[in-house]
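Dear Dr. H.,

I hope your travels went smoothly. While you were away I took the liberty of generating a structure for the chain from your last submission, since the lab meeting agenda had it listed for discussion. I wanted you to have the full record in hand beforehand rather than looking at slides cold. The sequence, exactly as received, is reproduced here:
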Amino acid sequence: MLGVSEASIWQWENNRTKPRVHLIPRIYDFLGYALHTPRLSFGAWLAEVRKALGVSRKEHAKRLRMDVTSIDRWERELGRPTSASRTRVRRFLERL
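The corresponding predicted structure, in token form, is as follows:
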């Protein structure tokens, strides 16, 4: 159903590896819910949304028409977006 080997699933379940980002939506669909811990920071939220969409940071930045470096810094909590940037991201994602 997920298109991966049983060994891959074993690796994930035993915290040896993590699923590749493009597999996350399939996993969510299979389980019927998203596995994440609610977080308060914008960067953590943005990373969860990106993973749920199954896209890389580069692709996410392209869709948002933003610089990938900004997306990367926000997700890694190395910087904070301006109010205008936060609004732009949220409005874009609300249209999905």
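Two observations you may find useful: Residues 42-94 form a domain with the 434 Repressor (Amino-terminal Domain) fold (CATH 1.10.260.40). The chain has a mean pLDDT of 88.

With kind regards,
E. W.
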